[in-house]
Amino acid sequence: MGPKCILVPFLIIFLRFITLSNSKSIVTNLPGFNGDLPFTLETGYIGVGEDEQDQQVQFFYYFVESQRNPSKDPVLFYLTGGPGTSALYPFLYQIGPLSFDFERSWRGNITLELNPYSWTKVANVIFIDTPAGVGFSYAKTWEASRSSDSILALHSYEFLIKWFLEHPRFYSNPLYITGVSYLGILVPIVALETYNGNERENQPKLNIKGCLMVSPLTDKFIDFNSRLEFAHRLALISDDIYESTKKTCHGNYVYNDMDNILCLKNLQRVDECTSEINLLNILEPLCNATNMEPTCREATNIFLNVWANDKDVQRALNIREGTIGRWESSNTSIHYKLKKSDTIYYSYDVFSSIAYHKQLLTRNCRVLIIWCNLSHKTNSNFSGDHDMTFPYVGAKIWIATLNLPLDSPWEAWFVRTQVAGYKMKYAQSGCNLSHKTNSNFSGDHDMTFPYVGAKIWIATLNLPLDSPWEAWFVRTQVAGYKMKYAQSGYSLTYATIKV
Question: Cα–Cα distances in Å, from 288 out to 6, 52, 91, 105, 477?
């Protein structure tokens, strides 16, 4: 769900050849990496769908064994966001064992290096391209190419059952369903289906212990609606805009009454302040056609698209020849955005997964919800408590609806004696839920002299407002916000800086 994307066609090549069985292979070398891979990488296809004899949906996956103790470490089933983002994105940009060496790479010579912060150092991770038509996954018929939130959740569980059947040595490992961004809404559904499957005595019985969600979407009203409060907390809109919008819109900033002119005007003021902000990380520059510097996600994605379309790379990954056209890092035609209607290929039929979370309360389930920077590079898609896509504010609202007793209050958590973020924990009858944020203070979030203190001091001057709260720019990028007061030749400008 990037801020500005160039749409690419939804391309699926329908195959009507003899059904291929599930296949897997060990990858020992990859173009761009010097020498043998120092970890175990398996790639393969697993077929899912209604027709068991002719598995018309073929999901491609990357499985990386834990580099610590693969026989004991947990298995993370990792669902990438969008929907429609390829699993290669987290594999190479976020939590996977490899990343691009940007300093030594160019289009004609792309170099890979080890990721020192990979989650595969302590966990077995299954990365999967979903749904069909994303990454290297494909469908054999047009009918099979159509998917939805609910279908994808069921297909994900079916994939897990079949994957574990082919990997029996991991039966006893703890399993955690993991989802990012939009796919966070499916995590509790897949988890609940797994618990229910165990109760139905489906084989194999999966050793599910819980789920992990990163900057997740959970409720399409609460999460989008929370952007207003988030924008106010981080000084993207003024107190005046915030209070006026709350009053006139009556707490609904998403499905607003089109006859409520005052509300619409206030929402327009909010949009004027935030439309040029990078929602994925409000401290990062917004990447577009006028700003394609190396630090931009779109610029670094060029490496991924060139690398993944290389025929030598596809042979190394054991991609079935002729199953897809040009590989794309994301299928933007099915990416969800606020109020987006269903497409011919995908139906967004789950509005909220809070009810599934409530059902998980009756299981012995561990839930971790985190807002964090997933990458040690500059192009992470998730940026802690500065991520405005699905703000942490919304999670606090829907977690409150679960009516869980508090087990540990809001407190700082540390990495090497430094505050890394904040956390709180809820627990009830064997189920526990932890909520964590990852923090980054700078600019208008400087704790030395908070902007709130400056606003209080300015208010004591009783100066008339000359220019209202608005963004100010440096080379087309929002650099901060300002407002101006003036009286009898005296003027005072109050500004924040977004560093």
Answer: 10, 45, 24, 22, 10
